[in-house]
Specification:
about 0% strand; globular
Length: about 350
């Protein structure tokens, strides 16, 4: 505890209460950036109108499709902000602080990318919202580096860990004490039916379908890697060897991330046979949605222009899984919570530990 206090003092804080207060302020800045990103969506409407004026209906539809995709992504920020704020309640040491900082940096980075993309057509200086998000990134990165410097073991620093292996994959440990939740079996069956399934087996088969959709998404990502090779070849033609190396390095990092995601999907599939109740199902759904969101983000970065079928299927995955997650969370916080005297305070109805973010921006 004493070492933790010294570490946060090095970050410029006197207590963890100060840390929590500052991260809340950073999240508020991110909310302003999110509002700006949403406001910028009007440009897709304007572009669609221009295409319609010239009779280009297909192009107009594409612009509106882009807008819809952006709207869905922006809505996801609200959920992610709430997760950060929930996890803030647990920040009592630097380990938890680092988890929250990584989640905050991830969301902030995605928001920066959104605003940067939206501001491209404005030949003006960057907006205040964008500048504030840049300051957020610098500040959060500083705290992360201070903590990592103090906590990383020397031998691990020497290792060349691929970017993909640094993803904070949600814990799938059903045997953890906080996951030992017992509910009325009849109530559990009603919950499964409320989700639209006749049995737990039907629900698990649906999760297998989600995994198969994600595997197709990963295959699409593998196919998209060829563009880095092509770009490297173009750089070599003009003698830009360093730039060519950078492209091939990015390709290698992406390959590692895809391999890691495939491994994580296998972990989820293997864990399905152990699912015995709705709490276990929630853990698996959170882990599945986590992987789904990363693949969506990767596809979105790789696809310039119209959406692919794989992306649209992943988007449908997200919406459907989110429905089940919210239904189960409502159940866990309802009258059957802590059935048979289980008195684990507040862990089961939030399951925030099961929804984490990548430690690095996508």
């Amino acid at each position: 505890m004493e070492s933790d206090l010294k570490l946060i003092q090095e970050c410029g804080f006197n207590s963890f209460e100060d840390v929590v207060k500052r991260i809340k302020e950073i999240v508020d800045i991110m909310r302003i950036g999110r509002a700006k990103a949403e406001k910028n969506l009007i440009r897709f409407n304007n572009q669609a109108k221009e295409f319609l004026k010239s009779g280009q209906k297909d192009k107009a539809k594409k612009e509106l499709a882009k807008k819809k995709k952006k709207e869905e992504r922006i809505k996801m920020f609200d959920t992610q902000f709430n997760v950060i704020l929930e996890k803030l309640l647990e920040v009592k040491n630097t380990t938890k602080m680092l988890q929250v900082l990584n989640a905050t940096k991830y969301c902030n980075s995605v928001l920066l990318a959104e605003l940067k993309e939206n501001e491209v057509e404005e030949e003006t200086t960057e907006t205040k919202e964008y500048q504030d998000l840049l300051e957020n990134d610098k500040e959060v990165t500083k705290y992360i580096e201070i903590i990592l410097k103090a906590t990383k073991k020397p031998e691990k620093i020497k290792q060349n860990i691929p970017e993909a292996q640094q993803l904070e994959f949600p814990d799938l440990d059903f045997d953890n004490e906080q996951n030992q939740i017992e509910h009325d079996p009849n109530a559990e069956l009603q919950l499964i039916k409320q989700c639209g399934f006749n049995s737990l087996g039907d629900a698990l088969r649906r999760i297998i379908y989600f995994i198969e959709v994600m595997e197709y998404g990963n295959k699409r990502l593998e196919k998209n890697l060829e563009r880095y090779v092509n770009q490297a070849k173009e750089y070599l033609k003009t003698g830009q060897k360093d730039e060519a190396k950078k492209e091939l390095t990015i390709k290698k990092q992406k390959e590692e991330k895809i391999k890691t995601l495939n491994s994580q999907l296998s972990q989820i599939a293997g864990k399905l046979k152990e699912v015995k109740n709705s709490n276990h199902m929630l853990i698996v759904l959170n882990a599945t949605q986590f992987c789904n969101n990363i693949i969506m983000a990767e596809l979105d970065n790789n696809e310039i222009g119209e959406e692919t079928k794989e992306y649209l299927d992943l988007s449908a995955n997200y919406n459907e899984m989110n429905k089940y997650i919210q239904t189960i969370k409502s159940f866990n916080s309802g009258p059957y919570q802590n059935y048979q005297g289980n008195n684990i305070q507040g862990q089961e109805n939030k399951n925030i530990e099961d929804y984490t973010f990548p430690s690095d921006s996508i």
